[in-house]
Amino acid sequence: MTSFLFQLATRFFSALWHLLDTGRRVFSNLLFLLFVAMVVAALIYSMPPRLEGKTALVLNLKGNLVEQHAANLDARLLADMGDGLEQGDIQLRDILLVLEAAAHDPKITSLVLLPDDMRTAGLPMLREVAAALDRFKASGKPVVAWGSSYDQRQYFLAAHANDVYLDPMGHILLEGFGHYRNYYRDALDKLGITVNLMRVGTYKSFAEPFVGNGPSPAALEADRTLFAALWTAYTDDVEKARHLPGGSVQHAIDALPQSLTDMHGDAAKLALSTHWADGLKTRDELRQLMIAKGIEDGETRSFRQISFEDYLARQKTRTRGDAVAVIVAEGEIRDGKAPAGEVGGLSTATLIRTAREDDQIKAVILRVNSPGGSAYASELIRRELELTRAAGKPVVVSMSNLAASGGYWVSLSADEVIADPTTVTGSIGVFALFPTADRMMGKIGIHTDGVTTTWLADAQNPLRPLDPRFEALVQSSVNHIYDDFTAKAAAARKTTSQKIDAVAQGRVWTGQQALERGLVDRVGSYSDALQSAATRARLGPDYRVAYLDPKPTGLDRWTQWLGFSRTRLARQALQGHLDPTGMLPDPARNIVASLSWLSQLADGHSAFLALTHCLCQAP
Q: Which domains does the chain have, with CATH numbers?
């Protein structure tokens, strides 16, 4: 009986085991089949749609126009801080690639430009896109622009269309260039914070908001000259594109109050009367217009079209063969490593060294869009470019919106420097900030005292008054860096330090003004820079363009997280004090961004930092 029960139990557990094993294998196979199905579906979904003849390319620009996508982690951090990057961005290189391909694609017969959702964009970048639109039109294909409304940046591109349409309830708002800064001297005094400034450069105005209650006469002079030149370039371009008389844009703005009254407040009709728009159409009327001009798509009940994103996905890039490497230096220049969307001294220098050691790369372009930052990091980048030239590979610098201060420093080891006429560049100057909060500590009853073996041991303590000996030490260091900056600029521009000093002093110039003062070799486009690099490397017309972008590791991401932490906390603390005041979000964010510079000094290795930064913005 026992043997029978044992055999019965054995058979039962054996059958149970077989059932479980079979179930496991079936379940594993089902999971595998599901995985295969998902992969196949993903491949099918990712395949670009079939392109038919008489198709319109829809260039729906969304977000910020940038040279390089920011790393995901930093984009999330900055979005949390309220910098607006949650709107996303679009790379200039992608737009140029798409427009160039579409101009030569016989299946693309027209282009619809929809700039409604385009946000920040510098004038040099807009000029690059506008030139690409002109090349597209030159291929015999029309460009139609439509907007619910146009701001100044959006209209600059729309003006280059064959036809500009505006929604009947919309408007075109051209405001001009210039801005008002916030000045914090009185507020900092009330808090008991002293910002000690050591600088070289009469026009070096970065730190003026922290040490004064208004701009210096030198800063006003420089800004007035800069903005006037940029506004002239903008209006000249729009008037030429729209076939308008010279000066008509400025005249329309001056007469706006009376003109709008005459139109009974109808801004859309005013846009027609000034010939800024060719017609008023709703979105559905635009759709009917494009159907009449092209082919109706029965499935969508619209005109036959392909989106910018889908057309971009169709473009194939080569990965082998002789190449011109493009390294983007976009954003503030910081010590150490930085992800895409910023410039790290070490990380950008590493990219340049990688290009130099790659046998397939025959020339290097540094595409600069930076207001500057750390002098040390700037020198690391310049030195790697110098070594690249010494290795026999041509180096060309292409200036985008900004190439000022440290952004100009990194341009000093190039065979050729090409700026857009509206690039903001120069700002050859150096400063250091040293905030002290001894008065604030005294207000709340905190006192600092102790014993040191030398006067220098605790000289960088921001809770003590600034020691005059330490101030002299920092000023001496700043003077030395300025002398080094001007000497390197003189050597690069084949002139004297005295002549560089005359156009330096921290003053910013447009690219055209910089050319007239010998600070750049010529004005031109990004395409001109590519052609120059290829010609200098003796490459044929079939060369490829290789973009070298930072690829941050997990460690780099954590480093960036830690690096942002204190600044982020400072911003959140400041925002928390400003929000209850009922202040509008944008001005509040501007104040937070400005004052967070003081907190960033604590993120470095010392309480002061020698900076080559212009505090300038892209027009």
A: 55-172+277-314 (3.90.226.10), 323-613 (3.90.226.10)
